Amino acid sequence: MTTDRRTPLDAVHDALGATMTDFAGWRMPLRYGSERDEHTAVRTTAGLFDLTHMGEIEVTGPEAARALDHALVGFVSKIGIDRARYTMICTEEGGIVDDLIVYRLGEEHFVVVANASNADVVAGSLKHRSTDFDATVRDASEEYTLLAVQGPASTGIVGSLTDADLPALKYYAILRTEVAGVPVLLARTGYTGEDGFELFAAPGDAVALWDALLAAGKPHGLVPAGLSCRDTLRLEAGMPLYGHELTRDTTPYEANLGRVVRLDKPEDFVGREALAAAEADVRRTLVGLTSPGKRVPRAGYPVVDADSGERVGEVTSGAPSPTLGVPIAMAYVASERAEPGTRLAVDIRGKAEPVEVVALPFYKRG
Amino acid sequence: MHAPQHLRYSKEHEWLDEAASPAVVGITRHAAEALGDVVFVELPEVGRVVVAGEPCGELESTKSVSDMYAPVSGEVVEINDAVVEDPALVNSDPFGAGWLFKVRIDGEAEGLLSADEYAAFCGE
Fold it and tell me: Considering the domain A5-52+144-236 in this protein, what is its CATH number?
């Protein structure tokens, strides 16, 4: 895949000295300086992220809600206006195509946010799955830049740039407002385990909005933050990542996310039959692992029985946790090994290193 | 590209200070920046005989783990305890306080690059 897509902040990242990386065909900031410092800033003050690579798909029309009820596993028509819901799109076989946040902007107006690598696939599937409904599906990714301010200082920073009533903006709620004079959709959502906001704006306003947030945030300790710390932040928060914890070969039940599948929806939806069967037969389960050592279990490493060496699972994500100071990982293991406290090992390049199953998340904000 | 002239370099991004006695080995700034924050350094034990071009340790960073390759064959005579204690030294001072180990060279160092050749190799 070529890196040919650039965010409107591309030159800004270069000017900040960012190390850039390819992510799903986008040229994105990996880190600006030390990724551990960026991670710590988000946990203690705030970080500013460019997330323009995320896909935004608009679904509108009289039957937009019903179309999404059919296409997704969640009960979308139950989402209140100006509220959001974490959900998934699954295959007929119950496998996860992507995890999504659905924002409801009006009775007949939804914005579905998909992962960058899946935006085309999700848009295509939504179009295909809504053909029998009076609804229009449109990939609007080009019309939005997405910035995120995450961390305990977020409210003070965003609040200094808007008249919006931020204390009234609840977790997983969204409103139309202006921030620094820029029209935005301001959502209280994120992927870091901290309080924070995601701001959808027109690409032409991206630089002005970024500069205003950075300037307003500086006295609060806000720093620009790259995808590298975003990954360790979400891992500590026990949040799954598409391509790692979530794939077409995994079901929401295996990922401990069965709560997002609404088998109680009145009408049929794509994957329902397979998911109902999958719920009753969860053979492997996503768990957290911590290691007393220094070596880090990484994606793809085998999880093995500590004594026999028998393979019982596989690591999906792993990193040295900046907050906890120890290696942490998520892994799929045989369900009978998933109880917190279970002692297992990870084959780290030929040597079995002891690990313990722990409850997720690794980190919860106080 | 910052690559001190008095060092020689491997294509695996280690540097070797042959003028020192015993010779000193580390990783380059280019490598340290590519790794990101180094959080764990596993060095070869003192007394171990390392072989040029073969893995002799590991560097764990937030995003990845990399093998450390011996730029030269010989016996490890000292390791940098400070970098084991504080792996961030690899990022902050890769050519100085972030050195990794000292080696008594067995024979001649072969196939290493000059600073200019290494800079060209890194494409800078």
Answer: 3.30.1360.120
